[in-house]
Write a structure and sequence with these properties.
Elements lengths: L9 E4 L5 H10 L7 E4 L21 E7 L3 H4 L2 H16 L5 E3 L3 E4 L2 E13 L2 E11 L18 H5 L5 H20 L5 H6 L7 E6 L2 E10 L5 E4 L5 E4 L3 E4 L2
Parallel strand pairs: 1-2
Antiparallel strand pairs: 2-3, 3-7, 4-5, 5-6, 6-7, 8-9, 8-12, 9-10, 10-11
Length: 246
């Protein structure tokens, strides 16, 4: 599949500081849409909001892909990535993954995957973007205090060993599937919303130093969250860190 993730170039490294950094360098060097970088271990991995992503060796999937959609298609790449993770989990298990807006995938209330997108825009045109996916396959979060209460993995949930390379193959195929739907102009918003746990919940959203609270009413066609505040006013949010309230 020319230009597709499944048919593109794949670079595998035993160890990198960050697959995002390496993919960004390859993108600057002109590597094509669909180029994928995978590492067995990351020493300075990136998460959202400036956080690090815990990346012990040999246990999980650490993947970054160069994507070159149009600027208008870029907003849907996060949908493609989170749906690809959900579909991968459903393909290999009877688990029921859900999406926490905007870019976390959870199983049984705990995070199993996260997505990060960094883009380069010049003169109003998208030069390229790098899509990063971290997915916990064999990780035992109980051994890592800072995530022991919030994270999970395929092995923890199912009590069995998973070959991360076999899971990686399926993930790339599913990502290719959803990304190509975007490139063809097809909408994947409805399917994305159907996987989301956030809608209808009372939530807190932190945006910088601002903390907002309200009910997650819906997600619009571009993936923005529509928040209804306690006074009845409505805000449309394009990003933020969500906490579900009991």
């Amino acid at each position: 599949m020319t230009g597709g993730l499944a048919g593109g170039q794949l670079f595998f490294f035993d160890k990198l500081d960050s697959t995002m950094n390496r993919a960004s360098k390859l993108a600057d060097d002109g590597y094509p849409d669909g180029t994928v970088v995978v590492a067995g271990q990351q020493t300075s991995a990136k998460g959202r909001l400036g956080r690090s992503w815990i990346s012990p060796p040999g246990q999980n999937i650490y993947l970054s892909a160069i994507v070159r959609p149009t600027l208008s298609q870029l907003r849907y790449v996060n949908m493609a990535a989170t749906l690809a993770v959900c579909r991968t989990i459903s393909d290999i298990s009877d688990l029921s993954p859900s999406i926490k807006w905007p870019n976390d995938v959870k199983v049984n209330g705990r995070k199993i995957s996260g997505v990060l997108i960094e883009s380069v825009i010049e003169m109003g045109m998208l030069k390229h973007a790098v899509l990063g996916i971290g997915m916990n396959v064999s990780l035992d979060p109980s051994e890592i205090p800072e995530i022991s209460s919030t994270a999970t993995s395929l092995s923890v949930e199912l009590g069995t060993y998973f070959d991360k390379n076999a899971v990686l193959k399926i993930l790339i195929e599913r990502l290719d599937q959803f990304y190509n739907l975007i490139k063809r102009g097809c909408s994947i918003t409805e399917e994305w919303v159907c996987q989301m746990e956030t809608i209808g919940k009372t939530i807190q959203v932190r945006i910088g130093d601002q903390l907002l609270e309200g009910k997650a009413r819906c997600v619009d066609n571009e993936g923005n969250l529509v928040l209804e505040k306690p006074d009845g006013s409505v805000l449309t949010l394009i990003a933020g860190e969500i906490t579900l309230q009991s």
